[in-house]
Amino acid sequence: THKPVLSWLTLCSPLHSFHFHIHIRYHIMDPAVGASRTIYVGNIPASIDEPTLRQLFANCGVVTAVKFAGQEGYRTRFVFVEFQDPSQAATACHLNGLQIADCAIRVQMSRSTIG
């Protein structure tokens, strides 16, 4: 297990000295954690449906879940795609910048799981 890093910061002015306690948290992704199997896909055209998205990412691996997010009625949305294996999610990140319709999609590892 990893412990948070604690640090002290002192800011001084001619009349006052300010002390701040900074609590820094960090997270190391463990391949066994679901977040490492999940990607964020942004700038998806609103016309793209789940079966089309699953077909697109099926070339990267086994898609276990898809969750659309963002408000309907906009030109683009974003989606979370979960894979069976972390290496499949990493492979899917290579599709970053792919043109779908008139949109270049953004693909990156997600910081959260589908849930």
Textual characterization of the structure:
The protein is mainly beta and 115 residues long. It has a domain of 76 residues: RRM (RNA recognition motif) domain (Alpha-Beta Plaits, 2-Layer Sandwich). It has a 4-stranded antiparallel sheet. The protein has a two-stranded antiparallel sheet with strand order 1-2. The N terminus is likely disordered.
Number of strands: 8
Name the CATH superfamily assignment of the domain at 34-109. Answer: RRM (RNA recognition motif) domain
Q: Indicate the overall shape.
A: globular
Architecture (CATH level 2) name of the domain at 34-109? 2-Layer Sandwich
Strand content: 35-45%
Mean pLDDT score, rounded? 78
Largest sheet: 4 strands, antiparallel
Strand order of the largest sheet: 4-5-3-8
Summing up helix and strand content along with how strands pair, one would put the structural category as mainly beta
Topology:
Elements: E1 5-12, E2 17-24, E3 38-45, H1 50-58, E4 63-69, E5 76-83, H2 86-92, E6 99-100, E7 103-104, E8 106-109
Antiparallel strand pairs: 1-2, 3-5, 3-8, 4-5, 6-7
Short descriptors:
2 helices; 8 strands; Nucleotide-bd_a/b_plait_sf; two-stranded antiparallel sheet; mainly beta; disordered N terminus; single chain; 115 residues; RNA binding; four-stranded antiparallel beta sheet; Alpha-Beta Plaits
